[in-house]
Every structure is written in C-alpha cells, then in structure tokens.
Amino acid sequence: MRFLLLYSPDWNLAPLAEALAAEQVEARPVTSFADPGLDERPAVLLLDPGTRGRLPASVLGALFDAGVSIVAIGQSGEDDVPAGLPAEILSDFVKAPAGPQQLLLALRTAFRLSAARRDAARARAEITARTDEVTELTKIGVLLTTEKNYNTLLDLILKQARRITQSDAGSLYLVETDERGDKRLRFKLSQNDSRPDIPFVEFTMPIDHTSLAGYAATEAKSLVIGDVYGLPPDVAYSFNHSFDERYGYRTKSMLVIPMQNHHGDVIGVLQLINRKRDLAAHLATPADAERLIISYSLHTERIVEALAGQAAVSIENSQLYEAIQRLFEGFVKAAVTAIEQRDPTTSGHSERVASMTVGLAEVVDQAQAGNYRLVRFSPEQVRELRYAGLLHDFGKVGVREQVLVKANKLYPYDLALIQQRHAFILRTAQWTFEKTRADYLEEHGQNGYEDFSHELRTRFDQEMAMVNRFLNVVTESNRPTVLAEGNFEALQEFAERTYETLEGGTVPFLTQDEVRFLSIRK
C-alpha cells in the first residue's frame, strides 16, 4: 500500500473501502492518535464530527507537524470550519452530508499535500544533514591540520572517520618503502568499540589484489561491501576470517577507501568496519551484528573519500614535519659534536645542561603548590628548552682557538714573551758580570782581584736568584689555581723593577696588563 488513512473506529468507512483499496490506501482504525504508528508513506487523518471533539489541538498540531494531512467532516448545518478547530492545519473541510465522491476527492488532494510536505521535510532534513556534514568535515579538517603529533594524528583520523559513519571498528594502513625499495602496506592502527581488549600488533603486507586493503591501494578505488562473508567468487580479493574466528567477532559491512595525496599517489588505506544503526550500540554477539549492522551507502562513501583526501594531506604534512624535526635534531647533534670537539675539556657539558633543564621544567610543570603552581610547559616548549640547553654553548664555534682553550691566565704567546724577556735579562746579567771582571783585570791586573771577584760573584748570584724568582713567580701565578699568598706583592715588585734595553732605555719586568692578568685571584 502506498498511502495510509487514519480514522476513528466509530466512523463507518465501508462505502469507501473498495475505492481506497483500488488506490492502494491502507485504512487503519486508530484508538490512540497520540501514537498512530506513522511510517514514510503519505498519511491522512479523517476527522469525523465525533472524533474531533475528543482530540485536543496539541495532538492535531503534532500530527500536522509530522506531515499528516487532516480532512475534517462537518456536521449537519455546518457551512464552514467550526470555531475551535484550527483551520490553518486542515487540508480540506467536507460539508455534511459527505458523499463518497466528495470524500475521495478530498482524500486524493490531502494525500498529494501530505506527500509534498513529506518531500519538503525530507529535503529540509537532507539540506540540514549536508550542512552539518560540511561543517563537520570542516571541523575535522581544522583538527587534522593543527595536530602535529604523528601518532595522535593517525588516531584522530580513524576515530573521526568511524564517528561520522557510525562504524564499530576500523583500521589504518600506511604505504612504506622497505630497505629493498619495494612498497608495502603497514597495518598501523586499529580501533574496535565492541572489543577494545583485542591486542594490536603491527605488521606489513604486500600491495596486491589478494587483500581488500591491498586491492584498494593498488587500484586506487574504493570498495563498498555489504557482507564480507558473501563476496562474489569472481573477485580477486578475499577476506581473512582468522580475526573473527580468534576473537568471536562478526565482521559484516565494510568500506575500504584509499588515501591519496594531491599528486594522486596512494599513501595509505582507511578501512571502516560494521556500520551501525546506532553508534552507541554494542556488538556482543554475531546475532547483534546481524540485527544492528547496516551497509555503507554511496553518500557515506563520498563523505569518507573527502575525509580520506584531507587525511592524506595531513599525514603527508605530518611526515614532512617529522622529517624536518629529524633534520633539525641532526643539525643540533652535529653542532654539539662540533662544540665538544673544539673544547674537549667540557665534553658532555651541553647534554648535561639540556637534561637538567628539561628535568627542572618537568618538575615545575607538575607542581601543584607554591610559586610555580601556575607554570605549565607544552611538549613544544620542553623541546625548545632542550634545544636551548644543547646549543647554549654554540657561540664556541665562532670563538678563536686560543681564547676557547685558554687554560691559564696568560695566552701562550704572552707567556713566551715574558720568558724571552727573562732570558734577555739573564743573558744581560751574565754579560755584565763577565765584562766587569774583564775590565778590572785589564785596569788593575791581579792586584786585589780575589776580593773584588768574591764581591762581584756575590752580587751576580743575588741578581741571578732575583731573575729566576721573577720567572718562578710568573709561572706560579699563571696557573688556574688560587693565587698563592705573597705572589701579588711579588708581581707588584717586578712591575716596578726595570731593566735596560739594547737601545739604552728602561722598561719594567712586567707590564701593568700582565700584572692585572696574573693577579686574578682564582
């Protein structure tokens, strides 16, 4: 029957029964108009004089809103819609006496109005649903593009695809290249609402026509299967029943969508399993599966294909982001290696600073009381802190070697200059000693030479001791230790003591800059 006529059991519909049956109208006597059992067919309520007095306006309004056309039959003497009966919800008012032809004509018009209103309601619902789907896809797209964590992104893709299709389970496969350069599918992720306890194990499989996912990846075509246990014998692919047999699950409807990037390359496969009438339903037994699972529609396929396209781009972007992260990580490690090779004495220092900094940040992030209870660090900020710790000495790369590895207070060439000065002073003292002795012998001979020589040797030995003490004080003060007591006064002494240059001028044993460097306490 194409149409539904609702009427009160008190109304005699016998004169119309044959004509209604010929026009495929199911006439249903209804005792409770609050729940008349409506379905998708155009429906008309025949409101006789006896029934309309018992039905409140709210019930009539609810039926009208549900798409039911209302035909009211007048009483004898009523020429128009009586007061109390809302005329705006009536499709027709038949005056008394109502003959069969009048009623049939009114009912035909009412059924057409009901069908038109139901079509309009379905169209509005369809528009609302499409708008909601576009809005939902937009929201999902934003979520996918903002998520940087690779594993979280994959979980989000599968979860959202299952949600918008009301799928009980699903799997995600990714295309990867092995060490020989061959492409394979990696079973990367699995979700199952009815059996969340099932263990997950990653594995790879060939990209060929033998499996559902492999076929979709090879042909770049979607597969919509009503029941995987009833695959036609002429298809190349097959369904592996081992999972169902092992865990007592019943896989039935399936939607397999290849994920293609903007170049048209398949980078993965999205596999949705068991579309349910109600997303919250639980498939505890195979009987539940038979009762609650429905097939994936063509519209659902198009929606998931759109989502799969977004997912493919997001996965590719995430992979590129991770590649950039690995590249930057490699740069940081290379930089740290370069730093430590330039300054071997502090080897491992950068890594220790980074570890301690990250450790402090994690402790602060977990603080629930005290001054730092409101301070929180995101994973990105912790990563930045780690990089900052590793690279805090990066400036060493541009520091001159002599500055970077300077172990003492004086640079090597400054110390060498003082040593040369010491040697010059020492050689000058020796030359002066020998010249003074020769001049005496030339002028006085051996007369009084022994006493003169003894006094001259005493003065020479004292001068040699002073000159050697000069070098010893400089050497001791130059070491990176605490300056010994008395060395500061000794340095000042040698800053004031002078020697004669070859040109006849006088210069101090130590310059003021040399004294300043050597006087550093520690």
- Detail the poorly predicted runs: none
What is the terminal separation in angstroms? 105 Å
Number of strands: 14
Please tell me how large the radius of gyration is.
49 Å
Q: Could you tell me the mean pLDDT? A: 87
SS summary, helix count: 16
Percent strand equals 15-25%
**What is the approximate shape?**
rod-shaped
| SSE run | EHEEHHEEHHEEEHEHEEHEHHHHHHHEEH
Provide the helix percentage.
40-55%
Quaternary state of this entry equals: single chain
What profile does the largest beta sheet have?
7 strands, antiparallel
* Structure classification: alpha/beta
Textual characterization of the structure:
This protein is an alpha/beta fold and 522 residues long. Helix content is 51%, strand content 15%. The strands form three sheets. Strands 6, 7, 8, 9, 10, 11 and 12 form a seven-stranded antiparallel sheet that branches. It has a five-stranded parallel sheet with strand order 2-1-3-4-5, with helices on both faces. The protein has a two-stranded antiparallel sheet with strand order 13-14. Helix 4 packs parallel to helix 9 and helix 10 packs antiparallel against helix 11.
